[in-house]
Batch of 4 targets.
Target 1
Amino acid sequence: MSEPVPALRPDTPDAPVYGPAALSLFAPDAAAVELAAERGPVVWVPDAYGRMVPMPKHLAPPPMPMPEPRDLTPLPLLDPIAQRFLGAGLGGGALAAGVGYGIGEVINAAAGLGSGALLWVALAVLAWRTPARTVSGGRNGSTVHIRKAVIKRSHFHG
């Protein structure tokens, strides 16, 4: 496009002001005859000031493609994949802690069974299997001896 023609500002006669070019510069001369076959296709494009100006089609800028509509659905606060990773990490840690705690409890129970409870079970079995006469001092534990002594004394002090 051609350069804009400087115009003088009315308040200062010496300072040129550059404004939009007049459309009369682009108007064809009335005296010149132009045949349609000699002229290429012309398109109208907006200039910098919003006016539509003619331009040869081969010099026109390519048309701007229509942008695709944006997806305006609200996104979740946390990414679902990040939530899955976080859940797997916390769940795996809790599982490992629970398994470790359970194994520790089983080992503690086995150690307590060997030192304390197993001793009491062995004493109970030994007491149950021991014959009764050895516990009662050599006497037969199933025989009961009853001794009844009656002593009569008569005294008369009178």
Target 2
Amino acid sequence: MLSTATQKPHGKKKSAFRKISEWLHLWLGLFSGIVVLVVCLTGALWVFRYEVSYFTTPYQRVQVQQKSFLPPSALIAKTKTYLESRHDTLTAVSNIIYGAPGKSAYCITKLGKAKLAHIYLNPYTGQILQDKRQPSGTEKFFLFVRAGHRFLWLPQKIGSPIVGSACIIFLITIVTGLIWWFPQKWNHKTRDKSFKIKWNAKWKRLNIDLHNVLGFYSALFVVVLTITGIVFSFAWFRSGLYTTLTWKTQTVTKQRSPLSDTTITKPLIPAPEDSIWNQTIKLHPDFGRIMIELPEKAKDPYEADVFFGDGTLIYNRSICYYDRYTLQKLNGVSPEDKSYQQVSTGEKVYRMNFDLHTGQVLGLPTKILAFLACIIGASLPVTGFIIWYNRKWGKTNRRKR
């Protein structure tokens, strides 16, 4: 926040600390401004990607019926019959995903040489709704937006460090901006300038108020979005944040999931995915989304992931593994496999990182807050540059005229 709202009393010099803060705020803000503008604008668009996708792709919606969903084996059979009718070479059905009532289910299938097809079905009737083998127009748009947000449309190895570094600089400008914003003398006049926007003022005064006041009110939200975003750019920052929150060193396991007992050669239970489905909905009838991953290799287990809320939250999801032959529950091998209720407070906050960054942690209210914070964050480099330009050259232009 490049502030000029709180002027120093005449005859009183600024401290060295304040001068350094103002210098850092000005030049670091100018240096990182374009990147911050792009990252914030694309972040604002990214917030509502699920809602836009849901309403622009009708095959994601079905009419709610007063009956139970078909079991996974029935939907998988419908998918296989459909693909056979098209003479497609089905390699495997890797996943089956159920949404909440009113949403379609879909199977992720592997066809031939590394080709994927998402077959959307009505979970009540098994009717094929969509055979999706390429991203939809909405998905392509949001993939483009995400590429700008994460990498500035550059190769990942180049763009990600640039974005992460600009976000670190942005954090410094927010802190130094708050120092510059803080009035040295509190009175009625300085309070009005610090906390209120004078909408009937001339455009230069209005621009300063928009920069200072909106910057102050949004600072906390922008800081949260920025810190949670830097996590995706730098591993050292990610591990440092984890250690700060949990007082533990982050461990990375090479093994993704537990292994099935390969000494058993034949399944002991018919249609094991149906048994897993029945157990899962009995434990979590309030699910937002359930994803069952089917094993491909002999040692792979079944995996059942339950997502709550609207089905997009990932921080408190439930993950269960089952032996592919006996359906015995297996213990997870990764720290992320632990139940959200079992981990420490710091671990819970760390798991919220993605949901905090995207604003979906508490649903629509926090999405709106994240959207507004992104818009204000995008405006700060613009309004700050205008303030700097007017102070640098505005008076000279007026004298010339």
Target 3
Amino acid sequence: MNAQTHQLRVAVTGARLDVVIDRPQARNALSLETLHELEMVFTRFAEVPDLSVAVLTGAGERAFAAGGDLKELNDHRSEAQAGALFDAGRAALDAVRRFPLPVVAALNGVALGGGAELAMACDFRLAAGHAAIGFVQAQLAITTGFGGVADLQAAIGPRKAMGMMLSARVFKAPEAEAQGLFDAVAGENEPLEVLVSRFLTPILERPPALARDIKAVARAAMDPARCAAVGEEERARFIRAWTSEEHWAAADRLLARRS
């Protein structure tokens, strides 16, 4: 089964679902439409019984997802618009987080800002040798905007997560693996798909129902009350930062450099 939305390519091969963000001309930036389509696809395929795993990646070799689409979002400056943006991003990433099967992010290039949040919302992250990841939101004088801080904290701890967001550094693949952001990195001259296929082999050898059982047990270990509290604080802080003069001055400088 293959399908194409405006922003995504979707394919099912056996028990494997592949979702590709198909905006290479925009470095697979996350527009509102992209976020809505991610929510729709992961919600729809959650009910398909014969699937065992989902793989999320970006088109091309430059970017998994290079953050939010600043060109599109340049006019979204009010508190209401900032809240709606956060809610759309949170809904999309929650659909990934709550997908009842393991979700593997195959990082074919950089994952920056909201793209890093999307990668961390997945259960596993496999990376090409040239891939990189960065919570670079502070460069634009904003906080995480898609509910990603809890995922980062779960992976590396609250203290390291705070330091990583304050530094706004971009970590190349080997260091990202050492930091606990990537689960595996492709070897020299090894295609990313070879790494992905090797990682998926034991998952695809199990019954699909077992993959659902194991994912359910893993999610049960999470603290939903804590995640909800963190998300509410994150939303309020994102709205304040997004509507600040400092953010829009930084965004205007970045857009000017790209034009």
Target 4
Amino acid sequence: MPKQQKNDIELLRTWTLPPAATLGSSVRAHGILLEMRSRLPISSKKSLVLEAGELMLSMPADDKTQFDAAATIVSSAMKDIEDLPVIPREIQDILTIKPGERHRWLADGRLLSAGTRTVRLAGRARQITFHVFDPRVVEDLLDRGLVDQWRDEDVEAAAENRRRAAYKAKLTRSLKNAPKSATSANPASDEADVSLADWEEFGREGFLR
């Protein structure tokens, strides 16, 4: 067989991503691909791709040593793939929520964090830190439909806050526009009442004599 023809033969291996790992999200599947690539040597990263729900590693036949090393890394990582933490953009796609909802529910404790992760932005010195989430907790939220319940609670809370704000504003206006009482309008009458109450005792003590 000619050498050129031999070099065209590819080494190929695939790994199927289970539903428990992707949680039905293409964003999550792509995130798993990026995570796998991050564990490979630079020369092997682009050899791993995602196609139709499968991770596919392919290299020329002459790169068998490099291929075997990369395949071993991916196979080892696949053992715990279902426990890979869910990052923000993935949970937003899985639960169909907006960034504002994620921040709000994380702040009030309804959405539980599994810790934080710090990464360096590609090509930059700057690092960012963000919360990650337990995939089993995310799956439970999805199965129980809690997102719809939380949205209903938020609507009710917003309506209640508006009612309270309207009542407070109305009360403030009422106090501001209310007429002053006779007592507050004529403070001298208070002094007169006090002196008359003690008049009899004052006279009995003989201070007028």
